[in-house]
Structures are given as C-alpha cells and as structure tokens.
Amino acid sequence: MLSPARLARRPAGLACLVAAPILLTAATAVDPAVGDVEFGPAIAADPGAARLHTMLLHWSWVLFVPGLLALLAPIRRRGRVLATIAWPAVVLGLTTFAGLTLSDYFGLAVLEVTDVATFERVEEQVGQYGWLAAGWQVPGLLGWALALLLTPLAAARAGHTGWWYPATAVPGFVLYLLFAIEEPPLSLAGPALLTVANVVLAARLWSPASLDGEAAGEGFAAFRRTIGVVCLIGAPLALAAGMATLPGGAFHISADFASDPAAAQASAFFLHLAWLLFIPAVIEVTGRLTGRGWRFAQVAGAVALLGLLHFNGLMVGDYAGLAAEQVLDPARVEAVAARVEGYASLSLGVAMPGMLGALLGLILVPVAAARAGFVRWPVPVLAGVGVVAFFMLTVGRVPGLVAPLLLLAAYGLLARATATPAGARPESAPLPATF
C-alpha cells in the first residue's frame, strides 16, 4: 500500500493536475501574441496582458510537475519503462521549461525601455549562448514534450487509469503544441481538452483506495530512490560549481556579467542545476518519512518543492541580463533592471515564493527528518548554517564555497540515511516529549 506520506501527497498532486490546465487555458486566453502578429510588437502593445500571460503560463507548468508525479508515484512493475523516462522528464525537463517562460519578463522590460529593433538585437544575442541552449532549451523542450506525452501512457499501462485518459490528454497536449499561438477558439481547444481529462481523472482517483502502492525496493520505486540519493549529493556539488564560476575573483564577485560572459553563463547553469537537483532530493527524503512528524514532513516537502520549482527558473534572468549588458548602454541596462524589479507579478508571484520557499524548505526538510528519527539533529543544524552562509558569504568565489560545503555535509548524511535499508539504519536519539 501507499505510505502515509504518499497518501497525503496524492490529493495535493491531483489538485495540481486539475489547476494546471485551467491556468494554461487562462494563459492562452490572455496571450496578446496570438494570430498573424509579430511577437515583439504584439507584447509591446499590451504589456499588462503579456505579463499576466507569462505568470499564468509559468504557474501552469509548475503545477503540472506535482500533478504528473502523482500519476507516476504508484507505478510498480507494469509501466515502469515508460515511467522511468517520464519521471526525469517531469522533474528535470518540465521544471526547466517552466523556468524558460520567465525570460519573457526580461524581453518585455527591454521592449518597454527601448524599441522593437533593439529587442530583436538582444534576442539574437541571447540565442548565441551555448550554455542556455544546451543546459536549458534542449532539455526543457524535450522534457516538456516527453512529460506530457508519456506520463498518461505510463499511468494507463500500469493499470491505474483507463486508456481513455491518454486518448484524451495526449491529443489535448498535441492540440496545444500545434495551435497555441493561433486565434481563439482554436488555441483554447488543447488546454480545454486537457482540463476535462484531468478533472475527470482526479475525481476518479481521489479515493485513497483507488491506487495501489509499491514496495520500496521494487522496480520504479528503486529507480526513484537511486535518483534521489544521487541528487542529494549532486545538488550541493552543482551549487559549489555555480559559486566557483561566478564572474569575479576569489574574494570579490563582479556585478558586471559582461566582464566574463563565459563564467556568467556557466554559473547561471550550475546554479539552476543545483536548485533543480534539490527537487528529487527533497521528494525522496520526505517520501521516506513516516511515524512521528510525518505531517510536518509533508508541509516541509511542499514548501521546498514549490519554492525550488520557482527558484531554479529565476537563473534564466542571468542570460537576459548578460545580453542586455552586451547590447545596451549602461543607462538602459539599469533601466531594464529597474523595470524587471518593478513587475509585481514576477516579484510577488514567482521570486518571493521561490526564494523563501526554496531556502526555508532546505532547512525544514532536514528538521523533519530529524523529528522523524531519520537522521540526528546536527544534520538540520548544518543545513541551517549552510543557508545562512549562502546569504552572508556570497562576496567571492572562495567564501561562496562555504554554503555548498555545509549543505553537502547535511544532505550527504541524508543521502546515507536514504540509501540505508530501514532495518539497518541506527535510530537517532529519542525525541523530546514536546515533539
């Protein structure tokens, strides 16, 4: 049977599965760049609608992640091949694609400060960045497509949904893929079909008895656990790489990305990768926590997951900022940055929940593990000090490595506990009665 942690997650995941296509429908409906129009002039003519479209679109793809994971979670042996492809496509590819949508905010700021011709020059400059293409665009687009196409097929192959679901959801995605920038109502056909399919499916799967669980060591579950353990180590290592490649020197970080464009591109990729890899890491840890404190663990996992889904995408702004510095004069660069900072939908709808949720979640997840007796209390202490160091010591490449190393120690201990069979793991000290 499903563990209490996974049972608690499933209603939230199914709610996300319903909300995601609804937001996608709304985003498509307000998109000013549909029909036979040029993208730049169209969004410049209605910047308010363009910002609303970007925020709704970003949130839609973000919510699809926990929604699709809820369909993949109960898969055992049947469907495991499709699920093994779909799961990383959802967690890594679709999340990256959601982050790519945020680049529209920066393009809109350039249009509001300059003109269409300058906007096109900045876009051309961004298109030359190999780190962006290889690290974001290719995996993002590929993962987005595989996630939406294969997840319904995997769930049906496993017998957890009828074949009616992929027969409805997959055509819905294909319709969106083909006609998303056409005039309504054609552009709305795909999102509307996805909404109907997901609403019906969620209604059928809402009961805890409607899906069977899987043994922790079987098939697809073993694959997820392996990926989670690898990411518990890989995430802080990627964070270290991101800090080590920031433009500047050992004890001074340069605010001018154009002074070292290669380093700026590499750093943005590794920082994005770090926050991205923390996602499967915290999913696996909180999914393993049962008994005392498991409700707190689910809250901690939700905070971390939602924050990381937003926060990793913000790194795409570094490429836009670099392109602006290379194309625009300093006064316009400052004006573009000020305009981006003034977008309430970006700051309140993405940046604030992303930063607060991600960094707070990286502390709360080890706290939850310690409360459940999964690890000892020095682990969350190390994680907390590491997050504080991330804020306090980002003044150069050398001091910037303190935070990743502390997080590596904390999450490395979580990885050891996760990889150790439950019967062989030593119990932590008894918790105080107040817990």
Automatic annotation (TrEMBL):
Record's keyword terms, sorted: Membrane, Transmembrane, Transmembrane helix
Transmembrane regions listed in the UniProt entry: 53-73, 85-108, 128-150, 162-181, 187-206, 227-246, 266-287, 299-322, 342-365, 377-395, 401-419
Taxonomic classification: Bacteria, Bacillati, Actinomycetota, Actinomycetes, Micromonosporales
Protein's recorded name: Uncharacterized protein
UniProt keyword Protease present: no
